[in-house]
Write a structure and sequence with these properties.
This protein has about 450 residues and is mostly helical. Helices cover about 75% and strands about 0% of the residues.
Length: about 450
């Protein structure tokens, strides 16, 4: 099954139809016509899952904000606030991407938009292309981690976990990685100012102008605070918060005088395409994993890991390495749906005490956020990291692909450091959810 999967993916066929089609073929080969009944029994619970309805709502909210020009305005504000610092534009790009991550929950929009807006601005001011491109790609990947992350919603559904807890658990690791990226950019440019010179004095703005610019961003920032606030306070579920965010996106677009039929139509089309892609991949992969478990695959993996002789920490590290390797070749939805149903029961079986945790719920939450941090790395990992190709699509043609790969490596190292910190100090993940939920 997995050999056929790899062969067909390398032939360039879509993941959704490869996994679903192969599952149907092997169901018939290994069973009979009645075995195909597993197909509707696996798909129907997903079709009727209430939490998944947050996905199209958050994607629509992101599309509306993007088409209303909020992202351009936000970069302009942060660019003028931080432009006078060495490496300030790269830091502004990461900071804008962090705020953007809290608006959108998907990374493609962030990397492409910042590539169109921020890359020409940095290159025209003499920034080293590697610092400029690396900050755009690394900042863009924060959408995987910082709530409202679409990946976190799907993970919570597959792992049967609280979406709200996962959102809150991902906040500190997300902000920590954002701080790492900003610190790296500023430190490199302070040591060698030629890598990222500050903008000229005549282009800087007064404190009064800075306050006025911040006032322009009040509406979208208020929207983020409201959406995340109602989730974290427990006033609303993530789905209800997504509905509030979608309504708020209409209001923000109206305030910025961008609410018209073409904007709404384009946002609807973007939402339809992205949601359909995610849901079809989920349908295909859930049938594939269902057959795998039915044929004893889960037991095989458990016994294989036990036979390695590795302890709990060794098995956890092996899982993280496997996820990194898969992230070089597969997309994040496919990895989630193929690996999480297999890995989560193994982690539960290892026991919370093995990792110094008191509560089994803490263990599953901790592993969930580790998974999200790991998936960030998959977007920057050569040769097939999505962020690399998103940026290639908007970068000047004279920048070779090799430079884009090399620009990702320092930030990939920072992500490995972030993953190690989250593994060694579980409280980084667990502290905030326990503070909120008790």
């Amino acid at each position: 099954m997995f050999g056929s999967l790899l062969a067909l993916l390398m032939a360039g066929l879509p993941l959704a139809f490869v996994t679903g089609g192969l599952a149907c073929v092997f169901l018939f080969i290994l069973g009979d016509a009645n075995a195909l009944n597993i197909v509707p029994s696996r798909i129907f619970p997903l079709m009727t899952n209430y939490q998944l309805s947050a996905i199209p709502l958050f994607i629509f909210m992101a599309s509306m904000l993007e088409r209303a020009g909020i992202i351009n305005d936000m970069f302009d504000v942060i660019y003028k606030l931080l432009g006078g610092v060495k490496g300030g534009l790269a830091a502004a790009t990461v900071l804008a991407s962090t705020i953007l991550a809290a608006m959108v929950g998907v990374i493609g929009a962030a990397v492409v938009t910042m590539g169109i807006i921020a890359l020409p601005a940095m290159l025209s001011r003499g920034y080293d292309p590697k610092i400029a491109m690396g900050s755009i790609m690394a900042g863009g990947t924060l959408g995987i981690l910082i709530p409202p992350s679409i990946l976190a919603i799907i993970y919570a559904v597959v792992a049967e976990q609280s979406v709200g807890e996962l959102f809150i658990g991902a906040v500190i690791p997300g902000l920590m990685l954002s701080t790492f990226y900003i610190g790296y950019c500023v430190l490199r440019c302070t040591i060698n100012p030629q890598l990222g010179p500050p903008i000229p004095v005549e282009e800087r703005v007064s404190n009064r102008e800075k306050l006025r610019l911040l006032g322009n961003m009040a509406a979208p920032i208020a929207l983020i605070v409201v959406v995340l606030g109602v989730i974290f306070s427990g006033v609303a579920t993530p789905v209800e918060a997504a509905g509030i965010g979608t309504f708020g996106a209409f209001i923000v677009a109206a305030i910025h005088r961008q609410l018209d039929w073409p904007t709404v139509r384009e946002a609807c089309l973007t939402t339809l395409k992205a949601s359909a892609m995610v849901i079809w991949i989920m349908f295909g992969a859930t049938i594939f994993v269902g057959l795998y478990v039915l044929e004893g695959g889960q037991q095989f993996v458990n016994e294989a890991l036990a036979a390695t002789g590795l302890g709990p920490w060794g098995i956890l590290i092996l899982m993280q390495v496997l996820l990194v390797i898969l992230g070089m070749f597969l997309d994040w939805v496919g990895i989630l749906l193929l690996c999480v149903p297999i890995f989560v029961p193994i982690v539960r079986a290892l026991g919370a005490q093995s990792f110094g945790l008191a509560d089994p719920d803490d263990l599953v939450l901790w592993f969930g956020v580790l998974y999200l941090v790991n998936m960030q790395m998959s977007f920057l990992s050569p040769p097939f990291g999505y962020a690399l190709f998103y940026l290639r699509g908007v970068a000047p043609p004279e920048i070779p692909m090799g430079d884009i790969f090399r620009s990702a490596l320092p930030f990939l190292f920072l992500q490995i450091v972030g993953l190690a910190v989250c593994m060694l100090f579980p409280q980084v993940i667990i502290w905030l959810p326990r503070l909120v939920y008790g």
